[in-house]
TrEMBL record:
InterPro entries: DUF2851. It comes from Flavobacterium akiainvivens. This is DUF2851 domain-containing protein. It comes from the Bacteria. The lineage of its organism: Bacteria, Pseudomonadati, Bacteroidota, Flavobacteriia, Flavobacteriales. Pfam families: DUF2851.
């Protein structure tokens, strides 16, 4: 058993409240369990109880055993001076204040319905993947759908936070913010941080000016990423080197170190050369990209915005000086979906919050039109009969797995609470 189960029992009064007594033999009445803080200090703030004939207002601390308070040194911590009651599953020692007086203790072990305890033990028992895996197939659709919406919005808020922080740091330059986070997404997990550093290290005004010429924007991005260092045979590479040197001189820019990009363990279509070229072509061909992203909500129109391909040189290359069979290197639909899921939707949400607009329903509708992400987490949910029909589902379930299941937060999860009720 974990303390979060006792928190749930106390918070929602899931115990027999008739004829309650403290271990000291005094009658106990719970008027209000207090506010569940989940912060440092006592577990519940501003509770109200009656012990004997005396009414008390203060904090309540929860432990599996009464001796746990000494394991955590609560007796010497001034944050616990205001504790008026210890609630425990088992009583194995008295709990004393600094002055030596005894703090009332309530034992819950014999006050909680055995069915509730049994359901919790089933939920908490060791499983092959997550605690509720065997119960997922039998859940009511109403519970799952409501919880999915909450999970999706939690994940959206988490993704929007760094976007809003960067907007604040850049003085509200939302075009520059979009450029940074799009670059990160173009780099995927491996090169995303490097691409982000490349773009963030450049004034967006320079990116905007140089994007009018496709070779200039590519030279700027490649040079900043360290891809133009060395001696090349191809005229294209040497031309980019010269352009980069001229751009740096023209705008009085200094070379800044950024994390080197990686080719290793990437499919060729995801090589940093290809993705940076596609990114540069996007900004060359979509001079009003910010407006299009903000104003466009139709999925086909969004796809049209990102329908770009790498510069002609890269049709026969993946690296400088190494020719390859000709192939059109355009953004695939699956890659566009990743851009929409991980950048466009969070960015639109963050910008709407900053400007006082409500577009949540619009974003939900857009996500429900996208295919779900294909990864091992979704494969597992499908295996245990949890429907994964679109990107809205997959994003909600990733939030569930990462923020609840991985940390065994069953008592804060609507699915876990539903299983307890059975």
């Amino acid at each position: 058993m974990k303390e979060d189960f006792l928190h749930h029992v106390w918070q929602f009064k899931k115990f027999n409240q008739l004829n309650l007594n403290t271990v000291q033999g005094e009658a106990l009445q719970v008027i209000h369990p207090g506010q569940y803080l989940q912060l440092a200090g006592p577990d519940f703030f501003n509770a109200q109880i009656i012990v004997g004939k005396q009414k008390w207002a203060g904090n309540v601390e929860i432990h599996l055993k009464s001796s746990d308070c000494y394991l955590h040194n609560h007796e010497t911590d001034p944050n616990y001076d205001s504790v008026i009651l210890y609630v425990v599953w088992e009583y194995d020692t008295e709990v004393l204040r600094k002055d030596g007086s005894e703090i009332p203790v309530l034992v819950l072990k014999n006050q909680v319905d055995s069915v509730l305890v049994a359901n919790y033990n089933v939920l908490a028992a060791a499983k092959t993947w997550i605690n509720c895996e065997k119960e997922l197939a039998g859940l009511e659709a109403f519970t799952v759908n409501n919880w999915k919406e909450r999970l999706f919005l939690e994940r959206l808020e988490r993704k929007a936070l760094p976007i809003m922080q960067l907007a604040n740091n850049l003085g509200g330059d939302w075009e520059a913010v979009l450029c940074c986070f799009l670059a990160k997404n173009f780099g995927l997990n491996t090169n995303g941080p490097s691409f982000f550093e490349v773009v963030k290290s450049l004034p967006f005004s320079v990116i905007r000016k140089e994007s009018f010429e496709p070779e200039n924007i590519e030279a700027l991005l490649f040079g900043r990423a360290g891809l133009l260092a060395g001696d090349f045979e191809d005229l294209y590479a040497r031309d980019l080197q010269q352009r980069y040197a001229y751009i740096m001189h023209k705008h009085r820019l200094e070379n800044e170190y950024v994390t080197p990009v990686e080719f290793f363990r990437h499919r060729p279509d995801n090589f940093p050369t290809i993705r940076l070229s596609q990114f540069g072509q996007l900004y060359h061909s979509r001079q009003n990209l910010f407006s299009k992203v903000i104003e466009t909500s139709d999925l086909k129109a969004v796809y049209d915005v990102f329908d770009v391909q790498a510069a002609p040189y890269w049709a026969t290359h993946y690296r400088f000086d190494k020719e390859s069979p000709k192939k059109r290197k355009a953004l695939s639909k699956s890659f566009m979906d990743l851009l929409i899921i991980n950048t466009i939707v969070p960015f639109k949400f963050a910008y709407a919050k900053a400007t006082g607009k409500e577009i949540t329903e619009e974003l939900l509708a857009l996500m429900q039109l996208l295919a779900p992400e294909n990864n091992t987490v979704m494969d597992k949910f499908k295996h245990f009969k949890m429907p994964v029909e679109n990107a809205y589902d997959s994003q909600a379930l990733l939030q569930l797995k990462n923020e609840y299941c991985n940390h065994k937060r069953c008592m804060q999860c609507a699915i876990g609470l539903e299983i307890l009720k059975r």
